[in-house]
Amino acid sequence: MKYNDFEFNKLDYLKKNVDDPKDGIPSDYGIYQWVYWPAFDADRIATNDLINTLKEYSSRNFYIEEEIKGKYKFHAKIWEQGFRDNANMFGLSDKKHSELEAYLRSRTNIQAFYEFFKEICFVRPFYLGKANNLRSRLSQHFSGKSNVIAEIVKSSVPDQHVWVGYRKLPFSPAESSINNIYEEIYSRRVKPGLTIKPD
């Protein structure tokens, strides 16, 4: 699936088919991103199933907890706030949750909501990076040589709800330090929850 100039496929597929010549990952230089999107069939899904899917989505967060230790007396842990943890879709108030639930009782409205939901899922990936060899780097991630798979497992998000996309870039900086600078600029702009960047 193509979205925003990135070629995406589900994590469960790519783990088994990273070398597939058509739907796998190329060995080119490029950028990649990981997105949590529990796709659904807007023409068939029952309203109650959709509501349950959206509640589950709303309860999952991908973030790195950071610790701040003061010089003398304060010690704090902070993390990015996701949706309110109130068991409603997207942490909405009870009133707004009921309104959205009523809205989703119409097939036409579900179809319209599908596009909106897809956009909010893809607008901010939870992890991203750059690689001289996309296939090699993503294979490392898939085999657990980074914290990404562990975080997905910890969050109880099924692999078929995680989409991994790549975009080949037409150039490759000759110096690895420039490549790292590009990646840092990209990460700081998009702010993915699992990407660690120094101050």
UniProtKB/TrEMBL annotation:
This is GIY-YIG domain-containing protein. It comes from Dyadobacter frigoris. It comes from the Bacteria.
